[in-house]
């Protein structure tokens, strides 16, 4: 019988080992998302949304108060007003949280798969996407406004509002950008197949040009009026992060670790920097500096002409875009002991936040 | 080294996936069969050695040696080694091929799990292993009624029935029974046989538990692997189906 006990013990041990490397829904499915509103940073990181005081990095509240099985958050929450913070969950649910106390106002459980990106809030509606291929719209009380708008593949990117066409743009892993009627949820137009999956939101310029990154190793400029591709810029690897417009240039990156500045009109490369590590997230564009992270754990600071000012080792992996708030640069590393780090403009750490600070 | 091996496995799996019209379930089945067929010489060697060992346990000559030296363990061991030498039996002949198969099986399993990238972190990790293949993304993880990245349940009259887990238990039981028909080296129905019997009892339930709890892509791999192994054993003349039913003793 002793042999049997040994065998049972060995099988239990094997189960525990195997559970560490399977495709089950696990807490490390995404990377943290940060949103700053006034003097509070909202951090979506695993089982909680944390409200963290910007002045000293202390916890204001967390939602839910106790972790619940299957409930995970990675998308940056969206601030609707002083009554509602909108959070997208990996449990296929959209939550409205009271920013004052972290209590739930309502939830919407229509989607059938993970909500990976930040919701878009407008004066009348909340738009959000799901890996179930759909774009959803609910009103400020969580009531569905129209039947979900379906694309052919999962949507991982956040929807984007366009003032000029008064429509919602959504990019899909089916290689297309869609313009959707915000009142009816119907398609206004769609682009041709752009050559590769798109997992990040597009950037829109005032003169009606959409900038899109794709896994086909390209950044594209698309004329919204004609839907014609204005130019294509070739990268060395998959371009994951959203392009960012800064004056006459567009910043883009790829998984090979290149950070590019592209001429917005011609699509010509202005300069490129390549620190070690891959670049997954969009940069933070400050007044006179640009900040981005690498999966080597480095926070890179460059000038608008592409000169590296600082290469600061944070450790972990910097998949999350740096976010600015009250003269601070907020960093949420993955695979790091701290959940949130705050640096000043000189690269000096001001405070850090981790769950043990609760 | 291991990473390069996994990369190779993932790329072969995704090549098959593309070849069969982006059906990941079918790709898992074909890839598992392919790997098992490639490993056939190892399996054959293992079966051959097991058979030789089993024949030895049943031989009159060996039984007499056991009887003669039953009170002298040291001498029995010495005679056993002499017997091995005389008959050309390798005592590790059945273990070594099995050990060589392990890294391949683990690599196959990891390739399946890593290719099923349904979250950003998983996709980032997958991108480390594929040089191109953007057009294969996102991987279509739907197969029949299953979402291969999630544990499987088939809704029957409102109840979620774990069909794959049940099939895993059945095929694992048959396979384990077929494999454990031989006896353990140096054993004559003692501890080794007990262990083997216990394995054939617990292992199917352990595999069933994994299939019940983890991604159904893994369960599909278990079933394909078990069925291929059963077919190979039958082909090698090792599959006495009477052994599958529990004996009265």
State the gist of this model.
The complex is a heterodimer of chains A (358) and B (249). With 358 residues, chain A is mainly beta.
What does the secondary structure layout of this molecule look like, with pairings?
The complex is a heterodimer of chains A (358) and B (249).
Chain A lengths: L1 H18 L13 E5 L2 E6 L2 E6 L5 E5 L14 E4 L2 E5 L5 E4 L6 E5 L11 E2 L4 E4 L4 E5 L10 E2 L9 E3 L4 E5 L5 E4 L6 E4 L12 E2 L4 E6 L3 E6 L5 E6 L9 E3 L2 E5 L5 E5 L5 E5 L10 E2 L4 E4 L4 E5 L5 E6 L9 E3 L2 E4 L8 E4 L5 E5 L5
Antiparallel strand pairs in A: 1-2, 2-3, 3-4, 5-6, 6-7, 7-8, 9-10, 10-11, 11-12, 13-14, 14-15, 15-16, 17-18, 18-19, 19-20, 21-22, 22-23, 23-24, 25-26, 26-27, 27-28, 29-30, 30-31, 31-32
Chain B lengths: L1 H18 L4 H15 L1 H19 L1 H9 L4 H15 L7 H21 L4 H8 L14 E2 L2 E2 L6 E3 L2 E3 L1 H17 L11 H23 L2 H20 L14
Antiparallel strand pairs in B: 1-2, 3-4
Helix pairs in contact in B: 1-2, 1-6, 2-6, 2-10, 3-6, 8-9, 8-10, 9-10
Q: Would you mind describing this structure in some detail?
A:
The complex is a heterodimer of chains A (358) and B (249). Chain A is 5% helix and 39% strand. Chain A is mainly β. In chain A, a hairpin with a 2-residue loop joins strand 29 (323-325) and strand 30. The longest helix of chain A has 18 residues, at 2-19. In chain B, strands 1-2 form a two-stranded antiparallel sheet. A two-stranded antiparallel ribbon of chain B has the order 3-4. Chain B is built from ten helices and four strands, in the order αααααααββββααα. With 249 residues, chain B is mainly alpha-helical. The N and C termini of chain B lie far apart (49 Å). The chains are: A mainly beta (358), B mainly alpha (249). Chain A binds chain B through residues 3-4, 7-8, 11, 14-15, 18-19, 21-25, 28-31, 74, 90, 114, 116, 131, 153-154, 156, 173, 196-197, 199, 214-217, 238, 240, 255, 278, 280, 295, 319, 334, and chain B through 110, 113, 116, 118-124, 127, 134-135, 137-138, 149-151, 191, 194-195, 198-199, 202-203, 206, 209-210, 213-215, 217-218.
